[in-house]
Amino acid sequence: MHWILNTQFGVDPRKALFSLRGLSRYARDFFRYRANYKGRVELVPCLHDWYEESGSTKNEYFWQDLVVARKIFSAKPAKHVDIGSRVDGFVAHVASFRDIEVLDIRPISTFIPGVVFKQADLMNPNADINNYCDSLSCLHALEHFGLGRYGDPIDPNGYVLGLRNMADILRLGGTLYLSVPVGVERVEFNANRVFDPNTIVDAARAFDLSLLTLSLFTAENGMVEINVSHQTLTAIGRNRYGLGIFTFVKKAPSSCS
User: Would you give the DSSP letter of residue 90?
Assistant: First the structure.
């Protein structure tokens, strides 16, 4: 309910309570300041900042953007491409130390230094970008494919099509950094899907993407590296919600003898 009120209707009950709490302090500070300052003063109250930390460091976007950007910095790939991640978060992080190419179904009209933008629907194959890069990221985006939220076609298998096309974009031996909500598998229409992590690993394996590492972010435990096994993936799939950050490598297709 808080999420719906805040993000869809612009009403944040928590912030409203903090603001009410700050009214008396604001009035006290204003009259104290005004008594010692004779210039022009306009009222622009910021009432809830007294009760917040200096920055938002406890949410999944902060940690995924930081962790994956650091991995790319360490790996130093020849060409890194991103699909649908936050431009004002992860993309900006990476663009601060290297060039990055961004593919997204929605347009970006602003010129951003270090960022090359191409509008593309990743649910549809594009032969022009096959074997295109050795490093690829898609953070908090795949779960939206096929739900129509961003103008994409309605398709319950949208995430499968997206993974297939990501595998095609990636060169042999290349790395895919993928984050999606994980937990009890469901569709929260039309916001996003939540995946059982086994669903993602199995779908990726079908396109020759082999899991290297998995990190899990939860509100309770923060960011934790997971010892990957079928049992641990299954256990994660029984929880309500977390953010899984998967690192895959593209292997050569296995041949049958």
Answer: I
